[in-house]
Automatic annotation (TrEMBL), chains A, B:
It comes from the Bacteria. PROSITE patterns: NUDIX (PS51462), NUDIX_BOX (PS00893). The lineage of its organism: Bacteria, Bacillati, Actinomycetota, Actinomycetes, Micromonosporales. GO terms for molecular function: hydrolase activity. Gene3D superfamilies: Nucleoside Triphosphate Pyrophosphohydrolase, Winged helix-like DNA-binding domain superfamily/Winged helix DNA-binding domain. Keywords: Hydrolase. This is NUDIX hydrolase. InterPro entries: NUDIX_hydrolase-like_dom_sf, NUDIX_hydrolase_CS, NUDIX_hydrolase_dom, WH-like_DNA-bd_sf, WH_DNA-bd_sf, WHD_NrtR. It comes from Actinoplanes cyaneus. The keyword Transcription regulation does not apply. SUPFAM superfamilies: Nudix (SSF55811), Winged helix' DNA-binding domain (SSF46785). Residues 1-134 form the Nudix hydrolase domain.
Length: 233, 233
DNA sequence: TGAGTTTGTGTCAATCAGACACTAATCGCT
DNA sequence: AGCGATTAGTGTCTGATTGACACAAACTCA
């Protein structure tokens, strides 16, 4: 009997590294293994609603004000030992939250650096995670999604750090600053400043109205892999 | 009871217009209406395999040498009056085929211009078609997918026509030529020429090895809609 | 032969990305 | 108070790319 699941790849930036939220499985199959949070679709439930519900149940996060987009659907016949389970994966972007693991059923949820999670996840969740990271990298090129990694206010340096961490490549602070500030609607000045531990105070900004970046901020390196361009599982 | 379907948005360029392959439904619901070809996933069948099978069954096309990529998954609870049906949509790009409607069960398959199909399709297939067209437009910007609309050999003019028709905007032939020919691995010269009805003979090319375009060929106009960036149904 | 049409090369100015010099503002330390 | 260290922000220069367009090349048809 076929069942439909929803899995979540929740990404954030912590300690200068891209992290993913994983849970330790509390039951078979893959008891004790790491996996992406997720669960089965309920009768009459919309796909996105199921994603929001799982986000709350398994992690305690509120999906209403977070970025949540459908990633791809994974349906290899043997991907779940319990039987035929097709999974619709969602990509979620979260700011670095103070208590991300707090929640009712979320005792086992924890942030793990991407590099530590890769090749250690249950089911085909390694595939999902890889596709999620590549999607996020591409989104940073063509949309203002990077601001979703930041809190309500942030500095240009914070935003640059997001790009550097997600892309895993250093960026020139001056050129980045110029590009971001010249893109109307990307970020808006708040008029306030943040005094850092060290160095000159930086102006604080908030998200702008613009969703897409035109022109885009292209990665110098490589570009998207074919794998990610033609996701098909 | 939940069932999983696979639907196909098969696009091609005919008579200087973007066309989609639709079928006339032979049974309820939506008897007699136009719809995208598709069908239910079989037990133990891979998602992509189901797409390839439906492509052959309903249209007589061979998906092995065509572009076939997963588009998105549509799961609104009320999208199918028969009950809960979640559908994984695939995008297929085909060259203008001599006998596209020939096939066993494909008597009712026909090519329809996008503009004629929009707002006339059964289920939520209008949504799928809209997303498919937007995906194709974006693919042309960042990948060499345009060659999938052409036959084994084609001229730069043919390729430009694909861009103009899919993007629905005229392009400067000289600048387009320069950009395409300066992109290594996009197209390869065959050494042959095609004598047209009118005008100077044009050199014939075939697809190159490159899959991605770096730098991309960006649409001057608009850019992708937010709708298409965050497909979520 | 000449008009018409499409292909292909070349030019030019404006724009953009990358590299980098330099100033500004704050810290801790002496 | 003064100095070095560090981060923020502005400005400059160069090379590459884009868009607009002139013009030559190759062919058909009348």
């Amino acid at each position: 009997m076929l069942r439909l699941a929803v899995d979540l790849a929740i990404l954030t930036v912590r300690n200068n590294a891209l992290h993913v939220l994983v849970i330790t499985r509390g039951k078979e199959p893959f008891l004790g293994s790491l996996a992406l949070p997720g669960g089965f679709l309920r009768a009459g439930e919309d796909l996105r609603a199921a994603a929001v519900r799982e986000l709350r149940e398994e992690t305690g996060l509120d999906g209403r004000d977070m970025h949540l987009e459908q990633l791809a659907t994974y349906g290899r016949p043997d991907r779940d030992p319990r039987g035929r389970v097709v999974s619709v994966a969602y990509l979620t972007i979260a700011p670095d939250l103070p208590a991300p693991e707090a929640g009712s059923d979320a005792a086992s949820a924890l942030w793990v650096p991407i590099s530590k999670a890769q090749s250690r996840l249950a089911f085909d969740h390694d595939d999902i995670l890889r596709d999620a990271v590549e999607r996020a990298r591409t989104r940073l090129e063509f949309t203002t999604l990077a601001t979703a990694f930041c809190g309500p206010t942030f500095t240009v340096g914070d935003l640059r750090k997001v790009y550097e961490v997600v892309w895993d490549q250093p960026l020139d602070p001056r050129n980045f600053s110029r590009k971001v500030l010249n893109t109307a609607g990307f970020i808006e000045a708040t008029g306030q400043k943040r005094i850092p531990q060290l160095g000159r105070p930086a102006a604080l900004y908030r998200r702008g109205d613009q969703q897409t970046l035109n022109p885009p901020i292209l990665r110098s390196n490589g570009g998207p892999e074919l794998e990610a361009i033609s996701v098909d599982r």
